[in-house]
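General statements about sequence and structure are easier to judge against a single worked case. Part of our work consisted of pairing the sequence of a single chain with a tokenised description of its backbone. The amino acid sequence and the backbone structure tokens for this protein are reproduced below.

***
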Amino acid sequence: MKIKQVSVFLENKPGRLFEVCKHLADAGINLVTLSLADTEQFGILRLIVEDWEKAKQLMEEDGRVVKIVDVVATEIKDEPGGLARVLKVFDEANVNVEYMYAFTRKMEDSAILILRFDNPDFAIEALQKAGIRVITSEELFKNLR
């Protein structure tokens, strides 16, 4: 139920993001969704791609620092209060959300949210107990083809 996320550390200078995206595109790797966070000196590009092993290898061959982490994709109703209902589950289970970002596509009438936790297995269990669907990587990538 966990999905692999590729985190690439980038120098915060013009062209660095383009270089990564171009290299992945040239290798035929589609960016399913991404998030970019920055500081004055560097940025962290977080990517969801189907072939994460290949993306990691390419970035490391370029001399970039890459980290693979487990994230969780969940479905939330795309309506007022949809996100609050999911976050209430974590609040009641005392689960810390380290960061999250929205997915760029929908599944039927729901939005998809990518979340990172310090304990993803516990978070998945809390979501399932609350009746909130957790999306597998197979479902996520199948929906995009």
In short: The mean pLDDT is 89. The first strand starts at residue 2 and ends at 11.
